[in-house]
Specification:
This protein is an alpha/beta fold. The protein is built from 14 helices and 16 strands. It binds L-homoserine (HSE). L-homoserine binds next to helix 7.
């Protein structure tokens, strides 16, 4: 018998309980022994829950119960969750989580701790919700030198941008819908300001390139400043605006990683990824391009990935999994200033002045543009170059175009 304890009965934790129950017979069969939910830790009371008899409030009960084999941490954040994860691993219990903040900030230390105590720390659900991405990255693509990862990594912002594009909703209206659907983080700024995508690209980069990439090393821009005007200009040139997390391995092994909204041409497969769906495009030197696609947020898709990790562990608790990486270093991540690309510019000036500054450019048009506003696509250049040309002008929007 394998016993499970769930920490936190929020959207994901309750989804894990539901999947463990609904698919219980199938899970037992796949593991070849019963997998039983023993405890649910939450400070709140759930007297009417079908799991009411499992609820406890004191973590030390789990920590000190030798029958608990696997702890599922779905509390989120990096304070209480860090304390409980550390204590569970020190007690020799394996931990499964969907907590990208904890993995992105403390993953290296927690993986070390797991190894020292003969346990495992698995976090498939921390990136891409229900999409199988982390295990394929380290197993199925293990023969490759991975070179580049480009991902739509946040379901909430993709939902917001899709609703702005498709339904003409404002940013605020679309965010409210995403929150009502249970996609958003408790603090939606983690979604809309790009921090959630940043944590996920850190985890992907660490697994792909073998060194911890810390969130504070990754310049991060969200989507608050994107307007319906930008959406319309992008549409006029066959583009969609998407928030991308990117990690590009340099020849010298350094990593260029950043999060920013981009314009994507319609023919790019990532441009067709809509609503709460996520997609992660990976390039490797043997496989070329491969893309992973699926529901990036939501109760059951995320629980699906958590329970898959539980099943993997339950089949062989003591075997050490291949999800280790190095400690990283302060100079590992290099600035995206080195990357040349085309740029989308919305600015208050005249087209002739823009042509003087940029030479060859592609003007864009939209209905209802106010006098003085122009928009265009530049030729390839770096961000410092484009910013220098625009200095002194009133810039409404500046977005990179994905090549
Ligand atoms: N708030 C996150 C998202 C949840 O919208 O993608 C999944 O990590």
């Amino acid at each position: 018998m394998i016993n499970i304890a769930i920490l936190g009965f929020g959207t994901v934790g309750s989804g894990v309980a539901e999947v463990l129950t609904t698919n219980g017979a199938l899970i037992d069969q796949r593991v070849n022994q019963p997998v039983s939910l023993k405890y649910i830790l939450d400070l709140r009371d759930f007297p009417d829950s079908p799991y009411a008899q499992h609820f406890i409030k004191d973590f030390s009960i789990i920590e000190n119960d030798p029958e608990v084999d696997i702890v599922v941490e779905t509390i989120g954040g990096a304070t209480v969750a860090l304390d409980y994860t550390t204590r569970a691993l020190k007690a020799g219990k394996s931990v499964v989580t969907s907590n990208k903040e904890l993995v992105a900030t403390h993953g290296y230390d927690l993986l070390q701790l797991a190894r020292e105590h003969g346990a495992n720390y698995l976090f498939e659900a921390s990136v891409g919700g229900g999409i199988p991405i982390l295990r394929p990255l380290t197993s199925c693509l293990a023969a490759n030198q991975l070179t580049q990862i480009t991902g739509i990594l946040n379901g909430t912002t993709n939902y917001i941008l899709t609703r702005m594009i498709r339904a003409g909703l404002t940013f605020e209206q679309a965010l409210k819908e995403a929150q009502d659907n249970g996609y958003a983080e408790r603090d939606p700024s983690a979604d809309v300001d790009g921090h959630d995508a940043c944590r996920k690209i850190c985890i992907l980069a660490a697994l792909a390139f073998g060194q911890h990439v810390y969130p504070e090393q990754v310049p991060t821009q969200g989507i608050r400043q994107i307007t319906l005007a930008d959406v319309a200009y992008a549409d006029s040139c066959g583009c969609k605006i998407k928030l991308l997390g990117r990690a590009i391995r340099q020849e010298d092994g350094k990593i260029c990683a950043f999060v920013a909204p981009h314009l994507l041409y319609g023919e790019n497969p990532l441009a067709g990824v809509e609503d709460v769906f996520n997609a992660i495009a990976v390039n490797g030197n043997a496989i070329g391009d491969v893309m992973f696609y699926g529901q990036g947020a939501g109760k059951l898709p995320t629980a699906s990935a958590v329970v898959a990790d539980v099943i993997d562990l339950a089949k062989d608790l003591k075997h050490s999994r291949r999800n280790q990486w190095g400690p990283g270093s302060p100079d590992l991540v290099v600035s995206s200033d080195i990357l040349s690309s085309r740029w989308y510019v919305r600015v208050n000036t005249t087209l002739s002045r823009a042509r003087e500054l940029f030479g060859d450019l592609q003007p864009l048009a939209r209905g209802g543009a106010p006098a003085g506003e122009i928009a265009f696509l530049t030729g390839p250049m770096t961000e410092p170059q484009v910013r220098e040309k625009l200095s002194g002008l009133s810039v409404g929007s500046l977005l990179r175009v994905l090549d």
